[in-house]
Amino acid sequence: MNKLSHIDEKGKAKMVDVSQKPDQEREAVARGFIQLQPETVELIRQNQIKKGDVLTVAEIAGIQGAKRTGELIPLCHPLQLWKIDVKCTLQDDGVQVECTTLCFGKTGVEMEALTGVNVALLTVYDMCKAVDKEMVMKDIRLISKTKK
């Protein structure tokens, strides 16, 4: 097993020093899903959820979440993101969320993509909780991460 980079010689958590790493273009894609009852999907489709346009609000929330990752996850470096693209797709059994993040820097952007997905999913949950008591967020995962 590889040595954990966020642990010092005494086993204490630490932020990794990335100052000597080269700046590179870095991109990450994450995806997740929230399972909904068919009635909830139909309410979203017809824009009948009382809190408003679920998919648009969730996409905006995902963007906001990705931008704040460095504030939310203690050992993440704050990054200047060039691109955050959050897409919420209504499916027959729920909403799929995909978040793509891009930056030019010394560390990856996978945590930002994952945070964007999670915040978008939580927003769908919040907006639909009055009508659906059986929602399940699942399959949240990193799809890809690249550096050039």
SSE layout and pairing:
Layout: E1 24-35, H1 38-45, H2 54-67, H3 69-72, E2 81-91, E3 94-105, H4 110-128, E4 136-147
Antiparallel strand pairs: 1-3, 1-4, 2-3
Helix pairs in contact: 2-4
**From the coordinates shown, what is the CATH architecture?**
2-Layer Sandwich
Overall pLDDT confidence: 92
State the secondary-structure class. Answer: alpha+beta
- From the N-terminal CA to the C-terminal CA, the straight-line distance is 26 Å
Alpha-carbon Rg, integer = 17 Å
Give the proportion of residues in helices: 25-40%
Q: Looking at the chains present, what oligomeric state does this protein adopt?
A: single chain
Looking at CATH, the homologous superfamily is Molybdopterin cofactor biosynthesis C (MoaC) domain
Number of discrete helical segments:
4
Total domains: 1
Instruction: Report the CATH topology name.
Output: Alpha-Beta Plaits
The portion of residues forming beta strands comes to 25-35%
Organism: Aquipluma nitroreducens
Enzyme class: lyase
Protein name: cyclic pyranopterin monophosphate synthase
EC number: 4.6.1.17
